[in-house]
Amino acid sequence: MLRLGFPVVGVTDLDRAAAFWSAALHLTVSAEWASAQWRTLTATDGTRVLGLMRSDSPPEPRPRVHLDLLVDTTAEQTAEVDRLTALGATLPGWDDYPAEPDFVVLADPEGNVFCVVDLSRAPSSSMSEGAPILER
After folding, report:
1. Structural fold of domain 8-54
2. Which of 32, 35, 16 has its CA nearest to residue 24?
3. Where does the record place the VOC domain (predicted)?
4. How large is the C-alpha radius of gyration of the chain?
5. Residue 32's pLDDT is what?
């Protein structure tokens, strides 16, 4: 039976990406699932959560698929955005925010964009107007 696995992010520096994403998501780099081309990040229960794959291609400025990291409140969103930027994330020049967004767009140290979504304000006005999530 076909099953959905976990998201994989292409990166040029596996060690830097593994350090950022494991700190960002409170994950551990799995020694069992590591190579010169690959890192698997796992939760405390051993569940594989995120794959990092060595890639020479540059990150897409507006990828069709991206990660949404979820928080429950606006205060938590602000705190997490601050924590993630302290870990090395950046605020890319994003010009497509709706009038009252429930998300903040960040980029990891490799330049891969992702969103921190405040579920207390979801869905954002861009989704309620019928715009697809992937257009963020």
Report:
1. 3.30.720
2. 16
3. 3-119
4. 15
5. 84
pTM: 0.85
Q: Could you read off the pLDDT of 69-91 as tens digits, one per residue?
A: 999 999 999 999 999 999 999 99
Q: How far apart are CA 133 and CA 136, in angstroms?
A: 6
67-129 homologous superfamily: 2,3-Dihydroxybiphenyl 1,2-Dioxygenase, domain 1 (3.10.180.10)
Give 124's contacts (C-beta < 8 A, 6+ positions apart): 98, 100, 101, 102, 103
Tell me the C-alpha to C-alpha distance, in Å, between residue 119 and each of 29, 93, 99, 132.
28, 23, 16, 17
What is the structure's pLDDT at 26? 97
Name the one residue in this structure whose structure tokens are 């596996």.
Answer: 14
Q: Token pair of 93, please?
A: 């020049």
